[in-house]
UniProtKB/TrEMBL annotation:
The lineage of its organism: Bacteria, Pseudomonadati, Pseudomonadota, Alphaproteobacteria, Hyphomicrobiales. CDD domains: SoxW (cd02951). Transmembrane segments: none annotated. This is Thioredoxin family protein. Residues 51-135 form the Thioredoxin-like fold domain.
Length: 197
């Protein structure tokens, strides 16, 4: 029995650095940081082009210091490999501080801070995830051209299914996200894969 305990302890020591490397950290701004989030100059048009060059879509996530729902998103949803693997493969995620002062360049060329961008675009909840089009639009702002916006915190399947729906361009089709989500949930139930939402 002691041998098994020693082997288990040794395995934990080997795995611990890997687990810590994948875990979210908290930055100086008080926001949780995922190691796979992309840090950019927050020029939206440039970020859309960068994401497209990598075969991905741009998603912006607004968060704020002390947001319990943001923390839950990082600790409960973004800690799930099924969720993070899908997002990392298909999306470039850039984090914005709802009350931050970093410069942002909107799609209409206006230069503003993160906090004035949030006001301009009408985002008041954190987390809020904004999904941008595949290509830089000819005109409009982020809020006018976003293909989908997910305000607030949701469970795993709603969260993941929104990313899937955007990736599959469900916004161009006839199946509203709620119907898409319900269909996927039914399929998961039939497969016996549905856990607690």
């Amino acid at each position: 029995m002691r041998l098994w305990k020693r082997l288990a302890f040794a395995l934990c020591l080997v795995m611990l650095p890997h687990a810590q490397a994948l875990a979210a950290t908290v930055g100086d701004d008080g926001l949780h940081k995922q190691p796979w989030f992309t840090v950019t100059f927050k020029d939206i048009a440039e970020d859309i082009e960068t994401a497209a060059a990598e075969g991905k879509r741009l998603a912006i996530v607004f968060e704020q210091r002390g947001c319990i729902y943001c923390r839950q998103m990082h600790e409960k949803i973004l800690s799930d490999p099924e969720v993070t693997d899908y997002i990392k493969e298909n999306f470039m995620v850039v984090q914005y501080n709802m009350f931050g002062d970093e410069e942002v360049i909107d799609l209409d060329g206006e230069e503003l801070s993160e906090k004035t961008a949030a006001r301009k675009w009408g985002f008041v909840f954190t987390p809020t995830i904004v999904f941008l089009p595949e290509e830089v639009p000819e005109s409009g702002t982020v809020s006018e051209t976003a293909v989908a916006i997910m305000p607030g915190a949701f469970g795993k399947w709603t969260f993941l299914n929104m990313f899937r729906w955007v990736h599959e361009k469900g916004y161009d089709g006839d199946e509203h996200f709620q119907k898409y989500h319900a269909r996927i949930i039914n399929e998961l139930r039939e497969q016996g894969r549905l856990g607690a939402e």
